[in-house]
Design goal:
about 400 residues, 2 domains, binds pyridoxal-5'-phosphate, Aspartate Aminotransferase, domain 1, 17 helices, seven-stranded mixed beta sheet, about 40% helix, Aspartate Aminotransferase, domain 2, alpha/beta, five-stranded mixed beta sheet
């Protein structure tokens, strides 16, 4: 496993499309075209002294797949190159990445400031688990820089946010929040799932750690769970290193192999999905049965200028309010014949979600109202079907509202 498919000096200069196909791959002595799947938990040593040396000098060779595995390492390196990060560790799911990125560093008595508009499980970790362990969590309106500044004034070990947020597409000014967090002495951790590694680069905007659910666009074909943490070499080694090794959030080699294949087509999929999503958002905005559309690529988005500054395109997710109540909304969802009802996102199949009764049903009604999640809100994850077919499906279903 020593021969890189992409020479190191080329990895510095080639385009993302090339990195996604060739980056991080290393050929075994069998000269395979496709990345090899090393489905092994352990490794053997030629003699006892080789085992002693492997344990004495960490990182010189593979010793156990909870620590490292050659197929997982290829996925980590490919994603690292695309993100432009110093280092990457893959995890078994997006939530394992979020949990490890926060907990590998935090200690009892510290504070964390986070935007309030969060994926449900991230909200659970920040609002329920951390306080249980003596870590104070302060939740703020992520769009409000004055709120970030006030919450960070007392110092903080870390800040956490999602941008765009799920499902109401709130945008956090990542560069400004990074400055405030650094002044408070903490690190900024960004959940970059909605934008994907191609449309937004939090590290270049000043964030310290980026986390992904690779389950979403990176696999993008509904096959497996996965996640990743990208940060400086120092964070990955000194903060995450032993925590990762001894708590075991490791990614399966099989899933790493699927995710490597997913990365090969990531740019094609995200570009196409983003283009279709922009066309669908424009269609919905002009439709009399739609009361409001939230899409970062539409000039009507309340934070359009900021979204344009920090994202390359609007992404593959569109949120919109049906002109009607919950039953009208359910009639619309049930009338769709192409788009499936599902809580997943980033898939090649277009999927639609009713956040108030599914992903965000555990929040109190006041909390949902504060996040703009009404009974009429729909979240659409745009897939790879022809945009004209998706628009026809939406138009047909809107007719029953
Ligand atoms: C899905 C998702 C996660 C969690 O990822 P899993 O792979 O399901 O564990 C975290 N954050 C966001 C924004 C997500 O959409």
């Amino acid at each position: 496993m020593s021969r890189p498919v992409l020479p190191a000096e080329l990895a510095q200069t080639v385009s993302p499309a090339t990195l996604l196909v060739r980056g991080g791959a290393a050929r075994s002595p069998y000269d395979e075209t496709c990345e090899a799947l090393f489905m092994t938990s352990g490794y053997v040593y030629g003699d006892a002294a080789a085992a002693e040396a492997a344990f004495a000098q960490d990182g010189v060779r593979y010793v156990y797949s909870r620590y490292r595995n050659p197929t997982v390492a290829m996925f980590e390196e490919r994603l690292r190159l695309i993100e432009g990060a110093e280092a990457c560790r893959a995890t078994a799911s997006g939530m394992a990445a979020v949990f490890a990125a926060l907990l590998c560093r935090l200690r009892a008595g510290q504070r964390v400031v986070s935007s309030r508009a969060l994926f449900g499980s991230c909200h659970y970790i920040l609002a329920e688990l951390l306080p249980r362990w003596g870590i104070e969590t302060v939740l703020v309106d992520g769009r409000d820089l004055a709120a970030w500044e006030a919450a960070l004034a007392g110092g903080a070990a870390a800040a956490f946010c999602e941008s765009p947020s799920n499902p109401a597409m709130e945008i956090v000014d990542l560069a400004a929040v990074a400055r405030l967090v650094h002044r408070a002495g903490g690190l900024l951790i960004v959940d970059n799932v909605f934008a994907s590694p191609l449309l937004q680069k939090p590290l270049s905007l000043g964030a310290d750690v980026v986390v992904y659910s690779a389950t979403k666009h990176i696999d993008g074909q509904g096959r497996c769970l996965g996640g990743a943490i990208l940060a400086s070499e120092k964070f990955i080694k000194d903060d995450l290193g032993l925590f990762y090794r001894h708590t075991g959030p490791s990614l399966s080699p099989f899933n790493a192999w699927l995710l490597l294949k997913g990365l090969e087509t990531l740019e094609l999929r995200v570009e196409r999905q983003s283009q279709s999503a922009a066309a669908i958002a424009a269609f919905l905005e002009a439709h009399p049965k739609v009361a409001r559309v939230l899409y970062p690529g539409l000039p009507s988005h309340p934070q359009y200028a900021l979204a344009r500054r920090q994202m390359r395109a609007g992404g593959s997710l569109v949120a919109f309010d049906i002109a009607g109540d919950k039953s009208a909304c359910f009639r619309f969802l049930n009338a769709l014949r192409l788009i499936d009802i599902s809580n997943n996102l980033g898939d090649s199949k277009s999927l639609v979600t009713h956040p108030a009764t599914t992903t965000h049903s555990r929040l109190k009604p006041e909390a949902r109202a504060e996040l703009g999640i009404g009974d009429q809100l729909v979240r659409l994850s745009v897939g790879l079907e022809a945009a004209c077919d998706l628009i026809a499906d939406l138009d047909r279903a809107l007719a029953v509202v």
